[in-house]
Amino acid sequence: MKPSPNLLAPDNHALVLIDFEGQMAFATKSISITELRTNVAIVAGASKIFDVPTIVTTVAEESFSGPVFPEIEEFYPQATSGYLDRTSMNTWEDEAAYKAITGTGKQKLVLAGLWTGVCIVGPALSALTEGYEVYVITDACGDVSNEAHERAIQRMVHEGVKPITSVQYLLELQRDWARQETYVAVTDLMKKYGGSYGLGIQYSHIMLKH
Q: Which H, E and C letters describe 115-132, residue by residue?
């Protein structure tokens, strides 16, 4: 009855949130910004609930790209989270970011960010080369076109990256509804950001009281 070691667990990976900033979002066309922001909230909220080591990195924040999404700021305020600002498009080539990511000591890395074909492909392939297991949350990424996003995902999968989704990430960490220490936080997160699934949770909680 042992779970597969290939499953993500709160203590076996680090999360890297890359360049969720206005300038990149303005040109993102492969996913609606509303859906992207919702998925980012689920991912950031999940990592906060389960105390996953999380690195938030930006590129040219003050000179070009602008501030991070409010959904990240909600769970990881800039004042206390120490965002890492870069000039390099590939996070892996930034010394401070590289040290922060590898310094977590986690062999599994989960990535999400903008744009898929640049800011995710770079660190994903670089981490693979150094022997890390890499997961990409595909619906918490976006690019300037569907073609750009899909080819980037396809390229990474061919190299060994494991694609997952935002809700899959959250539920894989929860794994068992009997885990009461995180149950309320997880269901509250989904009530707020989980769309129809969240409405279903709200409905069942209310109706079961009658």
A: CHHHHHHHHHHHHHHCCC
